[in-house]
Amino acid sequence: MRRQFAVEACPPVPAYPYVALDRPSAPEGWPLVFQSLDPNADAGARLVELHPTRIVLRRRLSGVPMRIEMELSRYEGVAVALLDPEGEDDGVAVVLVHADPGLSVTLYSAPGIDDVVAQWRGWSGALGLPMLVTGEDGTRRPAYPMLGRLVVSAAKLRRRRRGGLKHRRPSVFQRRSLGRPPLNPSVHRGEREMFARD
């Protein structure tokens, strides 16, 4: 049975500078339910319900409750953004980016860049969305090519086995041959001990 989250349970949030969500490490940790700032909402905040494959946004506009649910595949990816691009603040954020800025969601923010790369990579892998890099003209492109939740890298050449011996003779002849018994084996009879004690 799906859990219901009432919009009325979302109290007004005046402002909070940084976001630090605990990314689930197991399926039982989903969904994540948290508040995010929304200047257009009545209470100045909205309720976000984040699943591994979809997202639900709840807020009130002029007293009317609104609910938006969509697949995460409709999001462009996970990008790193400056909290104050025009100012002197060095704060950065990891943002789930949508073509409509009003639907973008901040997943992590901090005053410095110490953990931002780890959070960026972790959220990208958890949600199966590409890591986005923002260019100087404002366009975004994937930092690495991805195939679903996997990062695709360049193919590596196979390492040669056995070095130079590989080209001298076929490897089947490099295997150890079966032993053969001698034609005249030594036979010891009448001895009491197998090993001498002196």
Notes on the protein architecture:
- This protein has 1 helix and 11 strands.
- It has one helix at 116-127, and strands at residues 32-37, 45-50, 54-61, 64-71, 77-82, 92-97, 105-110, 131-134, 140-142, 146-147, 150-151.
- It is elongated, with a radius of gyration of 32 Å.
- Mean pLDDT is 78; it is low at 1-15.
Features:
four-stranded antiparallel β-sheet, mainly beta, 198 residues, disordered N terminus, 6% helix, 1 helix
What is this structure, in a nutshell?
The chain is mainly β.
Distance between the termini: 84 Å
Give the uncertain stretches in residue-range form.
Answer: 1-15
Please identify the structural class as seen in this structure: mainly beta
Strand content: 25-35%
Topology (elements, then pairings):
Layout lengths: L31 E6 L7 E6 L3 E8 L2 E8 L5 E6 L9 E6 L7 E6 L5 H12 L3 E4 L5 E3 L3 E2 L2 E2 L47
Parallel strand pairs: 5-8
Antiparallel strand pairs: 1-2, 2-3, 3-4, 5-6, 6-7, 8-9, 10-11
